[in-house]
Protein: Aminopeptidase N
Amino acid sequence: MRTDIPQTIYRKDYLPPAYLVETVELGFDLDPARTIVASRLTMTRNPASKQKHIELYGGELELVALRLNGRALTRRDYEINGHLMRIPNAPDEVVLEIETIISPEKNTTLNGLYVSNGNFFTQCEAEGFRNMTWFPDRPDVMARYTVMLRADKQKYPVLLSNGNLVEEGELPDGRHYAKWEDPFKKPSYLFALVAARLVCQEETFRLADGRDVLLQVWVEEGNLDKTDYAMQSLKNSIRWDEERWGLELDLDRFMIVAVGDFNMGAMENKGLNIFNTKFVLANPRVATDIDYAGIEAVVGHEYFHNWTGNRVTCRDWFQLSLKEGLTVFRDQEFSADMIGTDSGRAVTRIDQVRTLRQAQFPEDAGPMSHPVRPDSFVEINNFYTVTVYEKGAEVVRMYQTLLGREGFRKGMDLYFQRHDEQAVTCDDFRAAMADANGRDLAQFERWYSQAGTPVVKAETRYDPVKKSFEITLSQSCPATPGQPKKQPFHIPVAVGLLGAKGNDLPLTVNGKTVGSTTMVLELTKARQTFKFDGVLEEPVPSLLRDFSAPVVLDYAYTDDQLIHLFNHDSDAVNRWEAGQRLAMSRLLRLTKAVSEGGTLVLDETFIEAMRKVLLDESLDAAFREVALLLPSETLIAEQSEVVDPQAIHMARQFMRSAIGRKLQKDLIAQINANQTPGEYSPDAIAAGKRGLKNLCLAYLAAAFLNLDLAERQFDKATNMTDRFSALTSLVHGESSEAERALDTFYKDFEGEALVIDKWFALQASAPRTDVHKVRELMQHKAFNIRNPNRARSLLFSFCNGNPAQFDAPDGSGYAFWTEQVLALDKLNPQVAARLARALDRWRRYMPEQQDRMRSALEQVSASGKLSNDVREVVTKALA
Ligand code: ARG
Ligand code: ZN
Structure:
């Protein structure tokens, strides 16, 4: 068995580039089988470097010509070592001309230049540019690009690249050309080209400074009826960046292009964002409320990168969170501001907390745990993670919590003032925040350097005589790979105190009244006590309000206290949190009962708490929905001492069906009360009503009750949200109509790839779907493992979203996983490596189950021809 990891790259080894590139002229003669790439680089020796040779990176390239200052180089003039080329003893000023040949149609990795549905697209982040030509392919090399595209005019009428179109025209043999110039310096990972048969929705838009810019959304012809929401979201993003941060669009033209084969969500290439169709295409017939929200968030995210990522970029890939954490934070704030109401904001915040717990906390507790700013990697594509993105966003949010909104804005302004058109580090960002506010943020650095989820333990003491309330906070952080011991973090803990009537008590510290009923305590030591005076009654503490830090809060709440918070907390996140704690303690008890063959009971107290929130008309439907959602099976597994997936599933199903049975009448009433007749709108109020209504439907289905309601909704629905929810309830409720409905649904949407993805995903995650069923679905004519969305919809939905079946005691799920990881790895290592992570948490299962999981991992690991991507994941899992 091979256990070696291929070359590890360390952050501490960073060296500045030996040469800087001033200008890049690229020529592409596009042909699916044989594309000729010509590159002309003007380079100068970097005074900041001691190295004397030019270093270029290249993937699988056929090198046709290489000239230095006009002289053809021979094999004796340079050395190639794997993917690195060295040209020694180069002069200070260099013009390098390179010609390579590549075959885009053979590129199944979707990294570099590739063909999707007959059209050309690129994906260059992180290191895809080197798959087209030899180049100093690292983000701290920023250059000005001119790009000439040549292609068959009939097949590829649209030729796009970054920046501005400066020239276009005809060529012999039915070909044409377009020349593009990007006025801004950029790293190679932001390069993009598109050569395709596409159409666009376009619009002229006036910026705050009065300039008019051209906005375009490019899609395949049949999808032109699905571009409105992306366009609207783009305009909202531009406006919001102007208003909230004073950041303007710096180009005359901004394009979004949708592609059906894409490894990730979308890419922020300068002026030419390339998107997974999933985050562009929507109309009420095919897209759900969640899809609409995703489009708004991702369009915003990629647009916001224009400043946080493109104008100011990363020095090296260890700094990835500098742009990703910050940009996720910005898109989160954008989505919240678009809703506008306090309660709407709270629901978006709750969704963020759910994602973090569902995906990031497990990552941080598993074999791939890494700091927000990693210290090393084998394959950088494995580090586009929930830790870098979502925990990174939490870290940015904590600056705002500590410095206040104004202080944070000052820090942002200083960051841009200092670093525009530079490639910088997370330390530079922190320094801007500290300097703009005259604050010492030295300890805050540990959020970047230390991995793991900190645990904050709270203990409280009320003194009825002195009328004081003490909160003692202590922090610890579990060991993570390579980091056995952790130093204390700088943790903002927002707290409030609730009186017996559920009101917020005024806060007094050291004899001074705090201006607000929420106060941010700054925990910087291992253990600290905070004291409030003048507390006239024994309060219920509301701790970690608004989820003020990405930590686990350990406090011995009683059920009565939780119900008090669930009914009254003015902080909506903690109100929701109280409900989650009530549910989780019961789910853990029920799981244990299933495992031990005990009887299952759900107490009336819990049911009544659920009923109360369901019927509370003073709360938005959207909030009631999240308050009624039970913690997922993954979350219960994370909280279990030993994971028993089948017991967890049964316990949660029991609880869902109990809610369905006991609240039946109220659920039906809420279904009727939350209808949204009339024209579909994806706004938060309407979406909230649909969400609550469809959750009620799901609870009834869990109890196998009133399936006629789902059936009727499926037949009558005029939007995808209602249609797909009804279908889900029919399938999960094992209705006799489920098969018919699945068939009808398939036929109705056969031509809509994104809807067919839903059709596969629903079946893959249905409780009855076992490996045999998944294999059967793989034989379906619509299944195609090469398309990442389709692979995710079936394979990932099963391996990650159906634990009770995937973790079947006979090991059939793991055998399937082994096969699929290996099959995918031959085509697309990035996607394969994501699937490989489905076994990350194998050490938390029962011993026999662990053995089965480990042997599956070993089987993958023993395969000789693994990509670096998968090799790194399985090696770390087994370490
Ligand atoms: N920078 C892109 C984003 O907006 C992600 C692209 C990453 N792609 C990749 N293959 N690693 O988040
Ligand atoms: Zn991003």
